[in-house]
Amino acid sequence: MAEATAAAPDLASALIAENFSRDPAGLLQIGGLSLTALAERHGTPLFVYDADLLRRAYRALRAAVAGFAEVDYSVKANPNPAVIRVFHEEGAGAEIASGAEFDAAVRAGVPPQRILFAGPGKSAADLDRVIGGGIGEIHLENREELLRVATAAERHGTTVRVALRINPGATAQGGAMRMGGKPSPFGFDEEELSEAVAAVEGQPRLHLVGLHLFAGTQGLKAETLIGQWAYGLALAAQIARQTGRPLETIDLGGGLGIPYFSGDATLDLDALRAGLPPLVETVRNDPRLAGARVVLEPGRYLAGPAGIYLARVLAVKHSRGSRFVITDGGMHHHLAASGNLGQIVKRDFPVVAVRQGEGASPCTVSGPLCTPLDVLARAAPLPELAEGDLVAVLQSGAYGLTASPTGFLSHPTPAEVLVDGDGAVVIRARGA
């Protein structure tokens, strides 16, 4: 993906108009609460999430795919139990990628049988943890893991429900990052699907109930997602033919994207809904699939737009014709915004001043760390700023704090606050 040179002000303005607000003095608000007041109360840097926006995203997606799929939440996007709880209260199960995420989901109230465990390197300790805790399903990604799960199941004297994660062929690709169609640590290659099914079927402590397909992520085009899901249904039918029994679960992954940069389009849920009837017919007309629970498990799409990363200006420096806004926030808390998390999302995220001002011009927003990598934005169009002002990084509800190198240079971790109704509660204390 080509690196964006700036987060256009029209994207930031559109996001503010859609998700947030400004008070009569031009100060940015979240859920009707002042970000300035939240910063004074909880310190900066600070992550703030709006529970109503989390609910709104979940309900909109659930309505768009109603009659085809259920919607679970991918905990890796934001594993704070308070965030997981919001989605669980809306009806979501959880997809996890570690034993600690299993614990977080259970603390949030998710029943273990509504939890799916994916990931290419599940340890024996984590498998013991989740099998002993009654997890609903484990998604197998390689032969060694298959044997580890069978061994753990024998140790616990139980039969474990499993699905096969398949690394699909090139025809199933799409999104900003391909997750299949090439050599990959994720899942069994499609070419070895039959051998993988036979290997699972040969283990008496494993009960093969489903398929997991995750072809790509940060997908913003409905037609791409529909194509991936259709491919997944075909693979699911292939597994059912080989086992001779209907599937119970068809996990079509997440991969739904959100706009970060100028030119990014918001995923069109109406177009997504319009593309579903052929998929619904495929499931309905195939007795091997008709009874299966089809599930989507997005994370970024559900949590990303609800979050703001708030940082305070420490200094404004002019160097050889360039303006640098130096803040107390940086890549140690928000690696994705710095562009260093991976190839899915580079920079610039939409960054705005909390206090509305005139005469915006491009500037570099950098953090307090002694590395040139600590840059939150390279060309953010911001008004004149001074020490003490606040800047807000939008689209920060997913892959923020827990996806970042928080130990680098030993700065304290920021607090996380959840705004719900007319109040705000600390869901992670500063320094915790």
From TrEMBL:
Residues 54-303 form the Orn/DAP/Arg decarboxylase 2 N-terminal domain. InterPro entries: Ala_racemase/Decarboxylase_C, DAP_deCOOHase_LysA, De-COase2_C, De-COase2_CS, De-COase2_N, Orn/DAP/Arg_de-COase, PLP-binding_barrel. The modification N6-(pyridoxal phosphate)lysine is found at K76. Pfam families: Orn_Arg_deC_N (PF02784), Orn_DAP_Arg_deC (PF00278). CDD domains: PLPDE_III_Btrk_like (cd06839). Residues 47-397 form the Orn/DAP/Arg decarboxylase 2 C-terminal domain. This is Diaminopimelate decarboxylase. It comes from Methylorubrum salsuginis.
